[in-house]
Amino acid sequence: MPGLSILFFLLASPLETRCGWLDNPSPANWWLTDRDGEWVLMLQGAHDRNGFIDAPWDTGAGDWVETNGSYGYGCGCFIGSVDPATGWATSVIRVQPLPLAQCRQDPALPPR
Fold this sequence. Notes:
Pfam families: DUF4087. The chain is mostly beta strands and 112 residues long. The chain has two helices and six strands. A hairpin with a 2-residue loop joins strand 4 (64-68) and strand 5. 20% of the residues are buried.
């Protein structure tokens, strides 16, 4: 059905890279704050609806600030898609930690 494939194409969200403060303040709660706002990656008690749990994490340059035991925040990026209406990441393909200095020096991000 040609109409169905066009509808699917219009509903599919494009992949993008979003970078900013990566927060994990408590078990299974993750979000990223970038220049456009806050994107929920996962909430405790919610099922993994966007692939975040299984998304590979690049290793390397990330730093982590512990604020609650081993929980806290860092700087990072995710590749995926978002729904601006809900603030949720609708798909997460990859997560990449970055040095804290990268977020601290970005004037578009709130200070930490």
